[in-house]
Write a structure and sequence with these properties.
single chain; mainly alpha; 73 residues; 27% helix
């Protein structure tokens, strides 16, 4: 069985018609205007479940360090 396609995991408006694309596959098309879902995804943004564990851990570590520094200052 092939792995599931990456899906939009947050509210995201279609740039063509404003339809909420949450749960739609990134490789799919908007059901209202047939524009590619990928056209509405901001560049550099991927759903959380598409990111590697290393990226998530690194991001979490930087957030923890940053919040500690802000707290101490």
């Amino acid at each position: 069985m092939p792995p599931p396609l990456p899906a939009i995991d947050r509210d995201l408006a279609c740039v063509g018609c404003g339809y909420n694309l949450r749960t739609m596959p990134v490789t799919g098309r908007c059901p209202e205007c047939a524009r590619a879902v990928a056209d509405s995804v901001p560049r550099g943004v991927t759903p959380w479940h598409d990111r590697s564990l290393g990226t998530l851990v690194t991001t979490g570590a930087w957030l923890a360090i940053g919040s500690t520094v802000v707290f101490l200052v």
